Amino acid sequence: MIRKTMILACLLVLGWIAHLSPVQAQAVAPLTLAEAQKISEAAEARARQDNWNVVIAVLDAGGHLIALRRMDGTQIGSVDVAQKKAETAVKFKRSTKVFEESVKSGNLHILALGVTPVEGGLPILRDGQVIGSIGISGVTSVQDGIIAAAGIEAL
């Protein structure tokens, strides 16, 4: 009898806590393959404008690869770097440029977070929620950032 009463009390408390919790986040549609391809196509088009050879990585909200493009002539090391930039952007919900600026200003403790502090990674937002990210690597970090922004604009 005491055990049943305790279980019922726990359930009531949990229900009361759930009732008091902040408004639950609205479900946002996940990033689709078609959207990831549209983003990577726009990024590639922007890179081609200036004859920049890059790798374009698009991840979902969980940090899983959806689309990857390695333009002809791009060094293979950029495959990993583009994915790491995208991973940093999705995990920390911010541009990798934020981390780059932090390191440049002397905040080296940021490196302990395991981030890739180089411009070129951006989160992809829908209704204010992160649904994925893009990472670009192959040219300068500023140029990578320009290409990433062009990809995001396509969505």
From TrEMBL:
Q: Where in the sequence is the signal peptide annotated?
A: 1-25
Q: Which Gene3D superfamilies does UniProt cross-reference here?
A: Haem-degrading domain
| UniProt keyword Signal present | yes
Please name the InterPro entries in this protein's record.
Answer: GlcG_carb_metab_protein, PduO/GlcC-like, PduO/GlcC-like_sf
- In this record, what's one Pfam family? HbpS-like
Q: Recite the UniProt keywords alphabetically.
A: Signal
Q: What is this protein called?
A: Heme-binding protein
Protein species of origin:
Lunatimonas lonarensis
